[in-house]
Write a structure and sequence with these properties.
The protein is mainly beta and 252 residues long. The chain has two domains: 104 residues, Pnp Oxidase, Chain A, CATH 2.30.110.10; 117 residues, Beta Barrel (Thrombin, subunit H). Helices cover 13% and strands 43% of the residues. The strands form two sheets. Strands 1, 2, 3, 4, 5, 6, 7, 8, 9 and 10 form a ten-stranded antiparallel β-sheet that branches. Strands 12-13-14-17-16-15 form a six-stranded antiparallel beta barrel. The protein starts with 21 loop residues before the first strand and ends with a helix.
């Protein structure tokens, strides 16, 4: 999948206001106001909100903010923090349980505190009921349509309400039309590299094709609405959160 570590703001007319969240690509919003970012971080320190620190393949346990200044932030140093790290991505959830994160450089480290530069941007998932998470190109789905099993189909994005599936021009797609019922859906998301590759699977009993779109290059995309059972919804929520966190890690 394309690298989603840095979310590029959409090309829109510049606004004189910098104190509100602005829509960015791939289901994110960003904030650049130092005053608003400081207010959010000070609130996270006061509550306190637990933070997760990411650096390359490293992920910390829960830690907290200890200081929030105009130019620097202090974080309680994880005991296993890797030596030589030059930057860090900081994640936390807000009152709505939505991921917020920022990436910044490391200034210094003491025995108890990690000192980092005050962030210039803060990102969060957009506030909508069913946010969509973009899938890496290696994500695949298998399913049954009209009694025939299909495998190795592509997935563009996924949410708790459904997914956008794509089929290249050289692959049969006659069995996929609007209002077609799909069953035995299995989404496969490989993670890791080399011998450490693991495959995260999510199974969904059925879904319905609600829209079909054919692009100029002959590739077709299919909007699929899930009909979820309670346990499937719970498993899908975990799958989406896992994918969301994997997207946030990109670019480290």
């Amino acid at each position: 999948m394309e690298q989603h570590g840095y979310i590029k703001p959409m090309n829109k007319k510049k606004s004189t206001s910098t104190i509100t969240w602005v829509e960015a690509e791939n289901g994110y919003e960003y904030l650049k106001s130092p005053q608003m970012i400081a207010r959010i971080l000070k609130d996270a320190k006061k509550k306190p909100r637990y933070l997760t620190l990411l650096h390359k393949n490293y992920q910390s346990g829960a830690t907290v903010l200890v200081t929030v200044g105009r130019k620097a932030i202090g974080i309680d140093l994880p005991v296993d923090w890797p030596e030589g790290a030059g930057k860090v991505r900081v994640l936390f959830r807000d009152d709505s349980k939505i991921w917020n994160y920022f990436t910044t450089k490391i200034i210094s480290k003491s025995k108890k505190t990690l000192k980092i530069a005050f962030p210039t941007e803060l990102f969060r998932m957009q506030r909508r009921a069913y946010f969509r998470v973009h899938m890496p190109s290696k994500c695949r789905v298998s399913l049954i349509s009209q009694g025939e099993k299909f495998a190795n189909l592509g997935v563009d994005n996924i949410s708790l309400s459904g997914m956008l599936m794509d089929i290249p021009p050289d692959q049969r797609s006659e069995s996929f039309g609007e209002a077609e019922l799909l069953t035995d859906i299995v989404i496969m998301l490989p993670s890791g590299e080399g011998d450490a590759v693991e495959v995260l699977n999510i199974s969904i009993s059925e879904g319905l094709i609600v829209r079909v779109h054919e692009m100029e290059n002959g590739r077709k995309t299919f909007g699929i609405q899930f009909n979820l059972q309670r346990m499937e919804e719970k498993a899908l929520m975990q799958f989406v959160r896992h994918s969301e966190l994997a997207n946030i890690r990109k670019g480290l």
